TrEMBL record:
Keywords: Fatty acid metabolism, Isomerase, Lipid degradation, Lipid metabolism, Lyase, Multifunctional enzyme, NAD, Oxidoreductase. It holds the Pfam family ECH_1. The gene is fadB. It is an enzyme of class 4 (lyase). This is enoyl-CoA hydratase. Residues 497-592 form the 3-hydroxyacyl-CoA dehydrogenase C-terminal domain. The keyword Isomerase applies.
């Protein structure tokens, strides 16, 4: 044994070939600080051993190395700039020392080689992958850039254009594509991987392959003439500007770094990479995106733990109500392999539900994501029926009828009479109290809310709402079923609007008050989309939700939380609803919807909407972008804090992921709690107080004031 650590070891095989084997104590290999230190020690031990003529780097696990240990980032990035720079420089020099070993090296790549794992392969002279391999540099998804030499070695290995495309998109490459682009030298079957690596390394040792020339290329300036460099980097900058926009600094930094380092050798280029990495590590975007990653891990691990506790397996699902939503839920169950019965009282509704599933599959076929066999299997998994009796063997029934408590209550009662005693019953409701609906049932312990978001096949979130009588066994089984459907479950407690809609409606109320005070809804949409980063501004989102739905839901919220969410006099949403301007569903709301000359969907600000609002609004005036953002976001943030304080949601991390997955909260802001903390709690309190005169939705709880005064964080007990 040449070296033995906790995460890796090095030993001598035959013919002077050593192997460096990554085998961490956890389920995957990753570059935490301990592993980086061990790599350096192993490198020095290999260099000092006169018997070593070459090294094979491999993994003892089913995957190579998944990257850096992101759980260490939060504390690392909180250090002073010079300390972060010292850490990343020291770490990247470990990879340099490995690259400089006095004999050839080869990486034998299986499974994922991502981030630091990919950079480990790049530090080797040769790379062979098996057919299971996926190789890439996904740091952009964390608001970062490669920090262990990736921006230096990859462009010199596969060319600038390919390398920038890899890094700025963060997409990994399967083995065949990596081979075609020059990132690996060979692809073999998994059982041939180690033998192939030893064979290639032997050729290099014997001088049949010029490994020194390959290594020298990685350490030299980029071989681009002035015209090629100008063309390459200007194209990359334009592409990044179009795709990433201004809110995501990391892809811009990558292009600038590679461009500035083009004429430098490895040492100079790495210094630029180190500096760029530190700048990004200290950015709000990186804090937000690393926060999302950690919050997502927390939500996934919580979901898996709850699902593991499930004692009932869901083998057959039933959906009650076959409209767009019911059809979407039926599709989601069927496409993931669980047969589903779709029940309605009218044949046209069943036809609509089936048509919705067929439409989603048809679009998938057009994009090459779905083949004919998948389409047939999915549709065959959906059995439409007009009879309750068809559901008698269902393990899980999801009621998705009209959003009316009386209708839902009747349907739930009728359902309980035909299904088995242990069948779980859920309601897909967006606002109606689960405790109220549970009164319709003889066995409320087997009942909970299961709130899907529209369109079901695209929106990742399912809010699972625990009623006061819902059993743990019911929650566990529904969480397991949600995961099986390919969705992210977040369990919340019952209250009006639950979590997502409860925080959304104060945001809408802030918007309505702003319009009544003279703001132009088009200008508000522009600020909230272009500056804040929402996929849709509030007026456009209300048009998509539907004015009838929004008006009804705001009535439910007003009844449930009257002290803060009473209906607004002359609310623009209600004005549109009364004028039968329902939004996209009938082509007219805040905007008029149609098609342009090329047949593409269009939306234009509706003069009719301005006329409707005019008698109720102050004279139109321009509002500063910061005021627009504050007047909409403070009510949302305020209500999210109350949800956490009241125990409606378990953690700030879960609240952030719920808004990200359920509403499309801007990822570069990290979620509502990350947004508050990035602003600073004291600053948030001051901002809310500035607008407190506008009404109760701006009034803070004592809890947030105490948090701000004592310098506490909402993330101290979560991601």
């Amino acid at each position: 044994m040449i070296f033995k650590g906790n995460s890796l070891c090095a030993k001598l095989l035959d013919n002077g070939i050593a192997e460096l084997v990554f085998d961490a104590q956890g389920s995957v290999n990753k570059f935490d600080q301990q592993t980086v230190s061990e790599l350096d020690q192993a490198t020095q031990a290999l260099a000092a051993n006169a018997d070593v003529k070459g090294v094979v780097v491999r993994s003892a696990k089913s995957t190579f190395i998944v990257g850096a240990d992101i759980t260490e980032f939060t504390s690392l990035f909180a250090l002073a700039d010079e300390e972060v720079l010292a850490w990343v420089a020291k770490t990247s020099q470990v990879f340099d020392r490995f690259e400089d070993l006095p004999f050839p090296t080869i990486a034998a790549v299986n499974g994922f080689a991502l981030g630091g794992g990919c950079e480990m392969t790049l530090a080797c002279d040769l790379r062979v992958a098996d057919t299971s391999a996926s190789i890439g540099l996904p740091e952009v998804k964390l608001g970062l850039m490669p920090g262990f030499g990736g921006t230096v070695r990859l462009p010199r290995l596969i060319g600038t254009d390919n390398a920038l495309e890899w890094m700025t998109t963060g997409k990994d490459r399967k083995a065949a594509q990596a081979l075609a682009e020059g990132a690996v030298d060979s692809v073999v079957a998994p059982d041939k991987l180690v033998d192939a690596a030893i064979s290639m390394l032997t050729d290099a040792i014997n001088g049949d392959f010029d490994w020194q020339a390959r290594r020298a290329q990685k350490k030299a300036p980029l071989s681009l003439n002035k015209n090629e460099a100008t063309m390459s980097f200007s194209t990359a900058k334009a592409m990044v500007a179009a795709q990433a926009g201004k809110h995501y600094p990391s892809p811009h930094m990558m292009v600038d770094t590679v461009a500035k380092a083009a004429g430098m050798d490895r040492e100079g280029a790495l210094k630029l990479e180190n500096q760029g990495f530190v700048t990004l590590a200290k950015s709000d975007a990186a804090k937000a995106q690393v926060g999302i990653f950690l919050a997502d891990q927390l939500v996934k691990s919580k979901g898996k733990k709850q699902a593991k506790a499930a004692s009932k397996e869901i083998k057959q699902t039933a959906v009650l109500g076959a409209g767009i939503m019911g059809g979407g839920i039926a599709y989601q169950s069927a496409v993931k392999g669980t047969p589903v019965i779709m029940k309605d009282i009218a044949q046209p509704a069943l036809d609509l539900g089936l048509a919705e599933a067929a439409k989603i599959l048809g679009k998938g076929m057009q994009r090459g994501k779905v083949d004919a066999a998948k389409m047939a299997a999915t549709l065959n998994n959906i059995v439409p029926t007009l009879e309750y009796s068809a559901m008698k063997d269902a393990d899980l029934v999801i009621e998705a009828v009209v959003e009316n408590p009386n209708v839902k209550g009747i349907v739930l009662k009728e359902t309980e009479e035909v299904v088995a005693d242990d069948t779980i019953i859920c309601s897909n409701t967006s606002t109606i109290s689960i405790n109220q609906l549970a009164k319709s049932l003889q066995k409320p312990e087997r009942f909970c809310g299961m709130h899907f978001f529209n369109p079901v096949h695209k929106m990742p979130l399912v809010e699972i709402i625990r009623g006061e009588k819902t059993s743990d066994a019911t929650i566990s089984a529904v969480v397991a079923a949600t995961l099986k459907m390919g969705k992210t479950p977040i369990v919340v407690n019952d209250c009006p609007g639950f979590l997502v809609n409860r925080v959304l409606f104060p945001y809408f109320a802030g918007f309505s008050k702003l319009v009544l005070d003279g703001a132009d809804f088009v200008a508000v949409d522009k600020v909230m989309e272009k500056v804040f980063g929402w996929p849709m501004g509030p007026a456009y989102l209300l048009d998509v939700v539907g004015m009838d739905t929004a008006d009804h839901a705001s009535g439910v919220m007003a009844e449930g939380i009257p002290q803060r969410m009473q209906k607004i006099d002359n609310d623009p949403v209600t004005c549109l609803y009364r004028a039968e301007r329902l939004g996209q569903k009938n082509g007219k709301g805040f905007y008029n919807f149609g098609v342009d000359k090329r047949g593409r969907p269009s939306k234009t600000p509706a003069s009719e909407a301005y006329e409707l609002f005019k008698p109720h609004c102050a004279q139109q005036q321009d509002f500063d972008k910061d005021e627009i953002i504050a007047r909409l976001m403070v009510p949302m943030a305020n209500e999210a804090i109350r949800c956490l304080e009241e125990g409606i949601v378990g953690s700030a991390a879960e609240a952030d992921m719920a808004l990200l997955y359920g509403l499309g909260f801007p990822p570069f802001r990290g979620g509502i709690f990350r947004y508050i903390e990035t602003m600073g709690l004291s600053n948030f309190v001051a901002l809310a107080d500035k607008y407190a005169h506008l009404g109760p939705i701006y009034e803070l709880s004592d809890g947030v004031r105490e948090m701000a005064a004592s310098g506490k964080s909402y993330f101290s007990h979560s991601a």
